[in-house]
Amino acid sequence: MEVITRFAPSPTGKLHLGSIRTALYSWLFAKRFNGKFILRIENTDQKRIDQESVNSIINSMQWLGLNWDSGPYFQTSKIANYRAIIKNMIDSGLAYPCYCSQERLNNLRSVQIKTGKKPKYDRHCRLLKNKCIKNKNYVIRFANPEIGYVTFYDLIRGKIIFQNSELDDLIILRSNGIPTYNFCAVIDDHEMNITHVIRGEDHLNNTPRQLNIFKALKLIPPKYAHISMILDENKRKLSKKNQDTDILQYKDDGILPEALLNYLVRLGWSCGNQEIFNIDEMKNLFDIKSINKANCIFNKSKLLWINQYYISNIPTSNILTKIIEYFKTYNIDTKHGPNLEKIVNLFKSRSKTLKEIFNQIVYFYRDIYKIEINLLSKYLLINQKFILELIYKNLKIIQVWSTKDIKNIILKTAQKTNTNMKNVAMPLRIILSGRENTPSIDILIYTCGKIYTLKKIKIALQFITNK
Ligand code: GLU
Ligand code: ZN
């Protein structure tokens, strides 16, 4: 049997890490068994399509490369189909209209709470049958079995049992004629031939309700796996309500998609001691049985650590276009500075995110005629002008632009001007890169190239002269 999984978000906000991890696990499970992965948008609980949320879902999935084999399907385009099934269910006694007013339901609830009972619909209209006063406003409820129990084997949690007496006769069609999530999910999981439902633990209570609907309709349910929640560093559940970070924010912040996926796959799943998994390894090794039952805690520094690993280890050419995006966003031309790829290559291992790379290297391009004057002033020596002139002269006549020869010039200049290497290097560092921390000075000068280096030293000399 072909494995078919789905990711079925409700478009009620941006996707956060928890939802995307659910998507990733469903996707990996399908890939592992050469199956299919479906994207289904569950939007019957909404008044109108929240296009922004839909876009955010689609863009997030595309950014991460979680491609779907079919969809996106929108449940709102199937309303007639759901209604037809509900009509049959009413005809065969599996569902019934409930005419109870909101007032009656509110009263019932407060009495139940006062008497220490679990608030639950009392099946008033099911018991009264046709004796109800038939006002226009009614909902359709599923006639849940009153006795017995529902049991299923969760692929992560093992055997789960719910008593039917605990379950409500849930509303499957609202008074406005729109069916509800629990019902639509059953119909779609059936019609889309879903074999495995992998979803958040917050849906564990829905599963017995959905299983009862499957059973009533004589349909075979899929297998279920409920994955634990992700908690933030304060042990709060990640959720849309808590305004948790939108997945696309990680993109803007310079997290690589492969790093985020790697971080998420390891959050709650393990395979020996391995930390780094490329996509192919994930697809081959992912095993639902090794998913952790306990909640996991989001750890930003681990995400950054993995991101840094990827930044340092993938070819610079793979991240170059992403760095160029930042330059475009800030409208900065890279033509007049040093070779961008070489500069990225030099600074990437010192950065945890792509944005950090950008922040470290933007100086080389933003304002070619600028010097970080305040910073430079901290390090100026009395004979600084002389030192810089000497370096300028010697770099200009250098035959082969090599780190060895560059280093030699700096060393000789230090000796000749009676100072040490560090005192010569520091001002140069600031002149070229605008910062105090850089890779070694010979490599920095070498990477900046002759034209840029000479141009910058000249500008610095003008500044020192004027001072
Ligand atoms: N639409 C549900 C949600 O966004 C998911 C339901 C499911 O996976 O069955 O939480
Ligand atoms: Zn009722």
From TrEMBL:
<comment type="subunit">
    <text>Monomer.</text>
</comment>
<dbReference type="InterPro" id="IPR049940">
    <property type="entry name" value="GluQ/Sye"/>
</dbReference>
<comment type="function">
    <text>Catalyzes the attachment of glutamate to tRNA(Glu) in a two-step reaction: glutamate is first activated by ATP to form Glu-AMP and then transferred to the acceptor end of tRNA(Glu).</text>
</comment>
<dbReference type="InterPro" id="IPR000924">
    <property type="entry name" value="Glu/Gln-tRNA-synth"/>
</dbReference>
<dbReference type="Pfam" id="PF19269">
    <property type="entry name" value="Anticodon_2"/>
</dbReference>
<dbReference type="InterPro" id="IPR033910">
    <property type="entry name" value="GluRS_core"/>
</dbReference>
<feature type="binding site">
    <location>
        <position position="240"/>
    </location>
    <ligand>
        <name>ATP</name>
    </ligand>
</feature>
<dbReference type="GO" id="GO:0000049">
    <property type="term" value="F:tRNA binding"/>
</dbReference>
<dbReference type="InterPro" id="IPR020058">
    <property type="entry name" value="Glu/Gln-tRNA-synth_Ib_cat-dom"/>
</dbReference>
<keyword id="KW-0067">ATP-binding</keyword>
<keyword id="KW-0436">Ligase</keyword>
<keyword id="KW-0030">Aminoacyl-tRNA synthetase</keyword>
<dbReference type="GO" id="GO:0008270">
    <property type="term" value="F:zinc ion binding"/>
</dbReference>
<comment type="similarity">
    <text>Belongs to the class-I aminoacyl-tRNA synthetase family. Glutamate--tRNA ligase type 1 subfamily.</text>
</comment>
<dbReference type="InterPro" id="IPR004527">
    <property type="entry name" value="Glu-tRNA-ligase_bac/mito"/>
</dbReference>
<keyword id="KW-0648">Protein biosynthesis</keyword>
<dbReference type="GO" id="GO:0005524">
    <property type="term" value="F:ATP binding"/>
</dbReference>
<feature type="domain" description="Aminoacyl-tRNA synthetase class I anticodon-binding">
    <location>
        <begin position="326"/>
        <end position="461"/>
    </location>
</feature>
<feature type="domain" description="Glutamyl/glutaminyl-tRNA synthetase class Ib catalytic">
    <location>
        <begin position="2"/>
        <end position="305"/>
    </location>
</feature>
<keyword id="KW-0963">Cytoplasm</keyword>
<dbReference type="InterPro" id="IPR045462">
    <property type="entry name" value="aa-tRNA-synth_I_cd-bd"/>
</dbReference>
<dbReference type="Pfam" id="PF00749">
    <property type="entry name" value="tRNA-synt_1c"/>
</dbReference>
<feature type="short sequence motif" description="'KMSKS' region">
    <location>
        <begin position="237"/>
        <end position="241"/>
    </location>
</feature>
<dbReference type="InterPro" id="IPR014729">
    <property type="entry name" value="Rossmann-like_a/b/a_fold"/>
</dbReference>
<keyword id="KW-0547">Nucleotide-binding</keyword>
<feature type="short sequence motif" description="'HIGH' region">
    <location>
        <begin position="9"/>
        <end position="19"/>
    </location>
</feature>
<dbReference type="InterPro" id="IPR020751">
    <property type="entry name" value="aa-tRNA-synth_I_codon-bd_sub2"/>
</dbReference>
<dbReference type="GO" id="GO:0004818">
    <property type="term" value="F:glutamate-tRNA ligase activity"/>
</dbReference>
<dbReference type="GO" id="GO:0005829">
    <property type="term" value="C:cytosol"/>
</dbReference>
<protein>
    <recommendedName>
        <fullName>Glutamate--tRNA ligase</fullName>
        <ecNumber>6.1.1.17</ecNumber>
    </recommendedName>
</protein>
<dbReference type="GO" id="GO:0006424">
    <property type="term" value="P:glutamyl-tRNA aminoacylation"/>
</dbReference>
<dbReference type="InterPro" id="IPR008925">
    <property type="entry name" value="aa_tRNA-synth_I_cd-bd_sf"/>
</dbReference>
